[in-house]
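Folds abound. Consider this:
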Amino acid sequence: MLALAGYQLGVEFRFFDPSSGAPVGQIGQLIAADYGDHDALKRFLDGLDVVTYEFESIPLSTVRFVADRVKVFPPVAALEIAQDRLLEKSLFQELGIPTPAFAPVDSLDDLQSAVTRIGLPLVLKTRRMGYDGKGQAVLRDEASVERAWKQLGGSRLLAEKYVAFQHELSVIGVRDPVGREVFYPPIENLHREGVLRRSIAPAPSATLETAALAIDYSRRLMDRLEYVGVLALELFSVDGTLLANEMAPRVHNSGHWTIEGAETSQFENHLRAILSLPLGVTTPRGCSVMLNILGHIPPAESVLAVEGAHLHLYGKAPTEKRKVGHLTVVAQTMEAIQPRLWPLQEALGIGRDEL
């Protein structure tokens, strides 16, 4: 999606991915090799002006190798912090961004201490590499403490207070190398089993004050990190306050609606930022609802028959719960979108009450 947004700007792309079957190979030159293959990385870098990444699970050593030779955005420091939940939460606290209570856990004694200090229920998470609900366990009673330790105890962990939130929000900001910034309105997200299923933009639950606070938190992070590119900040809305959950130094799933639903998509704005081009206007084109497509390819005719619906398939082989695409429906009001959602959910195999 980054490349598709960039081709219309006259930008050329080369891709690096460990998998020879990566979908990007369908639209451009792909170098498929292990992240530690320096010879392959040098071939990849030959003639490039700038490098970016679109997910966090890349070895820092690889990104540093690249950054020593070519400009890399977002900055390596942002990736390093986002890869470690303890560093991430500590940065939030340093910047005055509220978080759930948390504690590092390196032993069963540490976990018992966290239970005593923070209280149950709490969430035990791996500090690194967890995503889409992986690498996590919820502790609701004393009996689950040892069970969770046995499940996750081989890694460095973080214990967090379980948050009974009213809404999950995200805010997406964009910053260029000289500090110019634009922000999309907060987005309301719904997860099931740790996987994002639906995003609504602008977030119907976000007041003007909530939106301003979410953007302020995003701005603090980007300024502190001297950030370049798109940054997503995920938040819990709890009784009128916001608690930071995590940040993503990249274009973000909750921002996919911007392709049709905003004047400038997050993908185009990311490229504008890293190439020092003027940032685009982020004004929404009415209201949007984005639904992830998991595990199977829906019939295109069922989706495209719905007014205002846009289908995006990623060229991935369908497997259970794998994100293989998304669809977005756009209209001037949420009232106009509502009756269109059920036929779209039906096409995706989602029951009326699941979302």
